[in-house]
Protein 1
Amino acid sequence: NTGYSASVSGCGGSLSGTTYTTGAITAACTVSATFSLIPTLGVALDNTSLTWTTGGNANWYGQTAISHDGVDAAQSGDIADSQNSWMQTALTGPGTLSFYWRVSSEPDYDYLRFYIDDVEQSGSISGAVDWQQQSRAIPSGTHTVKWAYTKDGIVSTSSDAAWVDQVAYAPTTSYTVTATAGPNGSISPTTVQVAHGGTTSFTITPDPGYYRSSFATNCSGSLSGDTFTTGAITAPCSVTVGFAQASYTVSVSVTASDPSATEAGLTTGTFTFSRTGDTAPALTVNYTVEGTATA
């Protein structure tokens, strides 16, 4: 029936497709056939939570003859020279993808390859390679991961196939760290997704004439100048900073180098202003000059 595979034995014969041909019959014999449900790709790969698609010149398929777990695995389609057979699924990162793979092919020419977003990753295998476990880091965002068995233009050796089994994906837990600034300044960035156990930093920038007047956080970490670096993030947390207008203490003294003048003529008086304290902001000084005329 559709969706089932057959296993046939007896009378020294062989099965080709759906036809079983006996050997030379020299005595009474019995042919026995058993039928097994063909596993879907998701079942064969031990991950039905992912959506699997397959294509190329022939589809990957589930089978029970060769597997790592002793149950079932996915096998590449039957392809000719210069052809390929692939399967793929989509993952949302960050996270870690693990799987087992195996290949039986022409060494150094026909390969089982792994791709992230159609970019081939290192570690492709070729030749007679038994089951190996692989672990691949998946970055943040949505990504397509693909396994492909590819052949060059000549020669077919060994089983000329590839297998994948026990695909598992573990997303990395991440937390939102939120930063809020009051008026007259800023903090950057304002929102960050941080993986469990990771850290992040924020830069605090007061507007000209203002300073950081308050700082509060329920994230662990340390403040150095206007940079706050969190400790290990294990839960959502937040940072809040406030700003106030800067004020300055200024002292001004006025002295006159020639404090008196007479009617005999004009006398030039020189007045010297000296300023102490914070000299950065502009300062306006208003003053009057008074005197008494004498006969």
Note: The two ends are 135 Å apart (CA to CA).
Protein 2
Amino acid sequence: LFTARSLTAAASFLAPAAAHADLVAWWSFDSPPSGSVVTDSRAGLPGQLLAGATITDPSQGRTGTASDRASRFGVGNQRIRVTNAGYFTDATAANTLSVSFWIRQNAIRNSTPLSFVAPATPGGRGFQAHAPWSNNIIYFDTGGCCTNDVHRVFAGTSTDWTQWRHVALIKDGDSKLVYIDGGLLVSGISTAPISFPITDLFIGNSPTTTEAVNGDIDDFAVFSHALSDTDVAQLATGAPPDSLPGVNPNDTDSDGLPDLWELRFYPSLTELTSPSADRDDDGLTNGSELALGT
């Protein structure tokens, strides 16, 4: 979409992204994919369903309600890959990032539910977690791997992962926190900053594609600020990520298109006017472009 956008337009979006705390991406997985693409509802980031990763049927998401779906992986190379994840580089410029998600596993194994890839870092671990590894330990790495107090905090759990569990991972300067079901599991120091530039985001697997989650992930949300204890507690009781205090509305011009998505391509919200318009005259409406992540 809009391949002729200018560097000026891109820069005008990127600068404010790190200037305020916000929900910068959220995959609820409640809608069927467009082909093999699942698109986040905040910035329109396309995630490719690869190697058999799927979106479940209705009622198989975390809440079990009729409209709730989740992403599903397995024991192979299943994964969701967001290849234009440079969007997150600016969101992490303050060395602060929070990730919230629900996870249910058929059985724990050597798995990686998420990895923000920073190729300039040894191992590419910009912000990555095993939650948990096959030994029931959660390892949370940033800025590389795997020195305690530099890159990593970790802690063992006795959690039954065959039930839906809420996980929150927070990097706030040198501080790191890991929560399960709203309770603090571990906090510690990691002096290595989040590495950038970030190029890719993997959900449900690592960049090696050999560490798939044997189960489901739901409501994967990324925040450009440190979640508070209260925020995490609300998320763990089922509050939608966009309902937290301080999260900016995402359609302030009421045109049916997410603000952050519009600002990825244009310097202001006045350029795109409705989902039914075709701003770049390519035969796809703005709404179709959003759904396809293009």
Note: The radius of gyration is 18 Å.
Protein 3
Amino acid sequence: KALASSTCPVPRDEVFVVTKHWRKYHGYAPTLECLDKSLSRLGLAFVDLYLMHWPGPAYTVMGKSKAVMEASPLGPFVYAHKGHERENMRALRAETWRAMEDALKAGKCRAIGVSNMTVAHLEALKATATVWPPAVNQVEFHPYRPSPDLVAYCRKEGIVLQAYASLGGQDAGKATLEALGGALMGRPEVAAVADKHGRPGNADVLLRWATQRGIAVIPKSSSTPRMRSNLAAAAGLPPPGGDDDPGGRRLLRAGRRLRARHSTQAPHSSPCPHTRRAGRLPCCYRANHRLQASY
């Protein structure tokens, strides 16, 4: 609640606040309840971006048994909350989005978007939406999971595709990563590109791989030097710390450009025309797909 405090030194309009709708609250009235809870906890009158976190159901248990799901004709929906059955999810998502549209009109959020949605999910949502396109579709995106069809669809519709797990392997198990050739951060191809371009770490290469394709990235770090390095990599700048820019002015300008390019109020921009391959990495990430177009 620091932003809501009268003593906060940072103006509210200089902070972009994002929060998400939790899947337990799918449906019209529950969605508005969920947003009101978030605003109350944040101590804010509005958020800048409100995302539908998950297209699927809420589950009755945290640890789902693989054996039970494989034995049941319902699959993972054997654990779904009442009302969240497979056949109900499309209508529930539509009602969730309708509530988000009304929250947008009421000024409780300045933009609305989604997370973890496939092309099929988005097409179904579009059929009933009155506010379109979603500002953002936040998904797992990296060289093991490049999702070309989803990238093309979001670009066509004007949806900013935002990557989480940019460094790879959010949902892949150890066996899957080993089958693919190992974790991305340890791939020799990535290390070779980092060395060639004088980058301080492999993370820089993977972040730049995404931004060169017009994808927004949101790497998490509590380290100020790492934040600067991430920003420089995403913007295609040399590593920070040189004598030519002691005040970090290049990074500030780069941050403004990146924010403008991926603005939730603007159409999705084209990828950088100078895209280069960051090594011949496998593009067949098929591990434990959470995005099930069948619902």
Note: The CA atoms of residues 3 and 12 lie 6 Å apart.
Protein 4
Amino acid sequence: PPVADFTFTTAGCYTSPVSFFDNSSTGGRAIISRFWDFDDGNTSGINNPTHTYAAPGTYNVKYSLITDVGCLADTISHPVTLDDLPTALFSATAPFCPGVPITFTDLSTATGSSTLAIWTWNFGDGSPNVIRNTSTNEVYTYAAPGTYNVMLTVETAAGCASQVFTFPLTVLQNGSITLSSPAGTDNQTVCINTPIANITYAVGGSSDGGSVSGLPAGVIGSYAGGVITITGTPTVSGTFNHTVTTTGPCSNPTATGTITVTPDATITLSSAPGTDNQTICINTALTPITYSVGGS
């Protein structure tokens, strides 16, 4: 009697077609009828069919045949195991800033007995794909701010590919600081105990705060709503070089300025005591009276 048998090839995942090949022995007799049962409710009567399954699992595929003289072969069964798709996944380590290397950590997984063999990275900025044959933590640097769709696809050793995992990554702008009060207010001279002209700086980009150092007593710096304001009334004299420092996740610039505080004017008798209060006769020379003038 004829002996039915078959082989098959598969990429190992259920979304890929399985190809079946007749490997029967009929003693040279022609086969006039074939019956394939794919164990999912579908059948076929053709030679060497292909079939795509709708879900992962193990399917006991059955095959039988009839020769031209009416001999029926016993049904042969082989299990076909199909895994779910592998899963592409990764995380990214902040901060995301121009010129700063970003680490992408691979978290991809395979299912069943399959193993991952190919990782294809696309960093979304027009650069060529990066293809690896082992799991690696990729390090990539973006030159400019913007939103980039970083994509990863993984593939098993049998050729079963994952869905594309997409990570929208926003690269922030570097911080910025600009004098927003009138020109020259960052380098002013005032008298002691006199309010300064307010000094303001607009803070932009990824900067989200700031502080000021080097101010005279009575003058303070504060941040609110994207603006650093220096205001107050100095209570000490001197030259004060202040530094405005921005804060934020990316590059944070600084600005500098000077506030010069002059003391109040002073006047002191510099001639001999009493010369400022003297009595003399007419036509008699006055003893010179002198004063030293200081401060502002």
Note: The chain has no helices and 24 strands.
